[in-house]
Structures are given as structure tokens and as C-alpha cells.
Write a structure and sequence with these properties.
InterPro entries: 4PPT_N, Enbac_synth_compD-like. Residues 32-96 form the 4'-phosphopantetheinyl transferase N-terminal domain. It holds the Pfam family 4PPT_N. This is Enterobactin synthetase. The protein is an alpha+beta fold. The protein contains five helices and ten strands; from the N terminus they run αβααβββββααββββ. The chain has helices spanning 5-10, 30-37, 41-60, 119-122, 151-167; strands spanning 13-19, 70-71, 74-75, 83-88, 91-97, 107-110, 197-201, 207-211, 214-226, 229-237. The chain has a five-stranded antiparallel sheet, covered by helices on one side.
């Protein structure tokens, strides 16, 4: 994961990484402590690792951040701060952006590959042509153009977009896990499913994920291989959106 820092930095994103095995994990304040106290041991370690990852991501773009409480299951950040958090196999990652209020944030880490049978839970018939069963390796930070996607890659792209399309106001308030928005508005809990989004190819091995109910609402996603898994993250609103449309 650390090898991806320059790639994300070039996109204006900070990367934070934490693990559940770090010694002495402690809440950063009373709100985090109260939230963690009600959780089973494994979930508590994941929760605290995610908060550490978020603070490290914010620090990577020059922003400090104390405790990060939650609203339901969603992280709530102080004004002027936002990050997207993901967990997989005991590792927590987060991405943050220093500038650009209203720009989307979203990431997803999947270290356990999904079987082809999971495609029906992620894709609709009009997306199945994107699938490729071949397991062709490629370097971290890139993927070959003109090839199909694995179920895990498409799942990660949609999951990252699911978070981003709520946190910025680009999508409906029922989607997301990017935390508190620039105006202090908190998104509602996610509803629906990833099948309510449609993914398609874009330039340079990227993909565009759109809301089916409103295709003008879209984000560009990059998915890269990380060991046996993948990491997906939002770059920006789709170029098909104008600057004003990105803030609907």
C-alpha cells in the first residue's frame, strides 16, 4: 500500500494506513472511546485503526485532526476536514484531500478476491460484458488498457463511488460513507445496492461510475492491484460533468 503514496499524491490525495496489530491502540477522545466501548473486540480494533488511518491521511495533506466520532456508522469530521475509510483483512486505509470543498472522496480496499459468482450481487446484465476471467498481473498503480475487469475490481470501483456520491452532494443523500460534508451536513445511512450504480470504462484504464437514476452524477475511479487484492479510489467527478454540475 505504501508504494501507492506517490500515485495518490499526484491526484491531490493523502493516504493513511493503519493495522489492527499496532500496539496500544487508544481512542483519540471521549466520543471515540464511547463508540469503541460498545463494539466487539475485533470490530473495536478495526474502528480504531480506521480512525488512525484517517488522521494519517489528513496529516499527509497538511491537516491535523483530533478524534473522529460517528453518526450511525459514518465518521463525522471537523469543519474543513474529510476522509474516506476502508477496512480489509486487518488493514485500514483512508484517503483525504486538502483543498476543493465539494470534490468527491471515496476509497475501498478488498484484500480477499471475490468469486465470479458474486458478479450477480454487484452487476446488472448491461455491465457483465466488462468482466474478464483472466488473472493477468499488472504493476501497482496501473492496469492494462483494453482488458476486462475482475469482479473484485468492479466491486471496489462501485464501493468507492458509493461512498463518494453522497459525501459531496453529487449523489443522493442515501449513499455514502465519506463523512461530514463541507457544510457540516451528514449523509443518511446507505440504502439500495451497488447494482443501483453503473460502471463503464474510461481512458487510461480508469472507469466511470454513474448513478443509474441520474447518469449525470458520476465519478472517475482508479482501481489498482494490492497483493492479491485491489484498492479503488475516486479521482474526481467525471469530466462529462461541468464545474457547476459537480456541485449539484
Amino acid at each position: 500500500m505504501s508504494a501507492l503514496r506517490p500515485l495518490l499524491a499526484a491526484a491531490g490525495l493523502g493516504l493513511g494506513i493503519a493495522t489492527v496489530r499496532e500496539p496500544g491502540p487508544r481512542p483519540a477522545g471521549p466520543a471515540e472511546a464511547a463508540a469503541a466501548a460498545s463494539m466487539p473486540a475485533r470490530r473495536r480494533l478495526e474502528f480504531l485503526a480506521g480512525r488512525r488511518a484517517a488522521r494519517r491521511a489528513l496529516g499527509a495533506v497538511g491537516l491535523d485532526c483530533g478524534e473522529i466520532p460517528r453518526w450511525g456508522r459514518l465518521p463525522v469530521f471537523p469543519p474543513g476536514r474529510a476522509a474516506s475509510i476502508s477496512h480489509s483483512a486487518g488493514i485500514a486505509v483512508a484517503v483525504a484531500r486538502a483543498a476543493g470543498p465539494g470534490l468527491p472522496l471515496g476509497c475501498d480496499l478488498e484484500l480477499r478476491p471475490l468469486p465470479r459468482a458474486a458478479a450477480r450481487l454487484v452487476l446488472r446484465e448491461d455491465e457483465e460484458e466488462l468482466l474478464d476471467d483472466r488473472d493477468e498481473p499488472f504493476h501497482a498503480g496501473s492496469r492494462p488498457t483494453g482488458t476486462g475487469w475482475t469482479v473484485t475490481e468492479l466491486f471496489s470501483a462501485k464501493e468507492a463511488a458509493w461512498k463518494a456520491l453522497a459525501g459531496t452532494g453529487i449523489g443522493p443523500p442515501c449513499l455514502g460513507e465519506a463523512g461530514e460534508g463541507p457544510q457540516g451536513l451528514r449523509p443518511a445511512r446507505p440504502t439500495g445496492s451497488l447494482r443501483d450504480l453503473r460502471v463503464g470504462p474510461a481512458e487510461d484504464g480508469l472507469c466511470v461510475v454513474r448513478l443509474r437514476a441520474d447518469p449525470a452524477r458520476a465519478v472517475r475511479v482508479r482501481v489498482v492491484r494490492v497483493g492479491t487484492g485491489v484498492f479503488g479510489y475516486i479521482l474526481d467527478p467525471s469530466p462529462s460533468l461541468g464545474p457547476s454540475a459537480a456541485l449539484i
